[in-house]
Specification:
The structure is a single chain. The two termini are 32 Å apart. The protein has three domains: 72 residues, Arc Repressor Mutant, subunit A (Orthogonal Bundle); 118 residues, Periplasmic binding protein-like II (D-Maltodextrin-Binding Protein, domain 2), CATH 3.40.190.10; 103 residues, 3-Layer(aba) Sandwich (D-Maltodextrin-Binding Protein, domain 2). Strands 3, 4, 5, 6, 7, 8, 9, 10 and 11 form a nine-stranded mixed β-sheet that branches. It has a two-stranded antiparallel ribbon with strand order 1-2. The relative contact order is 0.13. Helix 1 crosses helix 2. The chain is of the alpha/beta class. It is built from twelve helices and eleven strands. It is 42% helix and 21% strand.
């Protein structure tokens, strides 16, 4: 069976059932009768040669085949809407749309610098920036709701095979303390020395937290009991400035301008995270997305990070066969 034998309307109808949870609501949303919707799903199943819904006493539920179709239908739906928006904006003389997901630590300094450079080159554009943890952003990338995600790359926690990655710079981990902390005169510190200190650490659900968990495990240091868990960088800075707590930060976070004068101490054996882009292998990036990537490399090479991490950035962007 070829892909031409599958009517896109049948996929749209199945996606509507998944979104609305029932045939009645899905039919109303699609503007068709329930019998017509049922007939559409029956035709889809005949053409595929498999059932996509399991009928039970409680109703119909997506089976493994239906879930595959819905996942990819959602991407197709998002791409089509994005294409319509791009054509509409092009008629108005606007570049875009571009939808970018970023992790919080990049939203304070790095992303604003990249956007400022992009706006100088292309002042009339439509860009949406979504801030979130990488585990929240990745599903949005896979469903086509985001064009790019900028944050930590896979490392020891690989991304799905349908996701491509490109490095921008490396960002070393360190210990963050307040300006009056007892450790402020230390040139370096080990995790073992900090086992009895009160901590501030990130919530679960992102590669940053997983890297820290792996570091504690590798060093044989138990996870702190006296700990404040938060993903708010503002709260972390405020608590550090007003307490004797310690936290895990990176060079990027340490060089960002802040009102609390947070200090960093090199942490022996802490390693680094690799910051870069993620995008779907199945789709080519738009011209505006490609320009955004180029601006990010330019900002990193120019030393905007004001730290050693910027010096480790490659002199030129790596090959992006799928980007152009």
């Amino acid at each position: 069976m070829s892909v031409n034998e599958v009517d896109p309307r049948h996929l749209a109808n199945l996606l509507s059932i998944a979104k609305h949870g029932s045939f009645n609501r899905a039919a109303a949303a699609r503007g068709i009768s329930q019998p017509a919707l049922s007939n559409s799903i029956a035709q889809l199943e005949r053409r595929l040669g498999v059932q996509v819904l399991d009928r039970t006493r409680r109703g119909s539920e997506l089976n493994e085949y239906g879930k595959i179709l819905v996942r990819n239908a959602a991407v197709i739906d998002s791409v089509l809407q994005h294409t319509v928006d791009e054509v509409r904006l092009k008629r108005l003389g606007v570049e875009g749309p571009l939808r970018i997901g970023v992790v919080p630590s990049l939203a304070i300094k790095f992303i604003p610098d990249v956007l400022a450079l992009l706006l100088k080159q292309h002042p009339i554009l439509s860009v949406t920036v979504v801030e979130g943890l990488d585990d929240q952003l990745l599903p949005m990338l896979l469903t086509g709701d985001l064009d790019l995600v900028l944050g930590p790359l896979a490392g020891i926690f690989p991304s799905p095979p349908e996701v491509a990655e490109e490095e921008i710079f490396q960002d070393r981990f360190a210990i963050g303390i307040g300006p009056h902390h007892a450790l402020r005169g230390r040139r370096s510190v080990t995790l073992t020395e900090l086992r009895d200190f009160p901590w501030i650490l990130p919530l679960p659900g992102n590669s940053y937290r997983r890297h820290i968990e792996a570091l504690f495990m590798t060093e044989g240091v138990p996870w702190p009991d006296n700990v404040v868990l938060t993903s708010s960088l503002v709260l972390v800075e405020s608590l550090l400035a007003q307490s004797d707590r310690v936290t895990m930060i990176t060079e990027l976070q340490a060089t960002m301008q802040n009102n609390w004068r947070i200090r960093s101490i090199p942490l022996k054996g802490a390693g680094h995270r690799t910051i870069g882009f993620k995008w779907r292998r199945s789709g080519n990036l738009s011209g505006l997305a490609t320009k955004f990537v180029e601006c990010a490399h330019q900002i990193a090479r120019a030393g905007t990070l004001q730290g050693k991490s910027a010096k480790r950035v490659a002199a030129s962007a790596t090959s992006r066969a799928k980007v152009r």
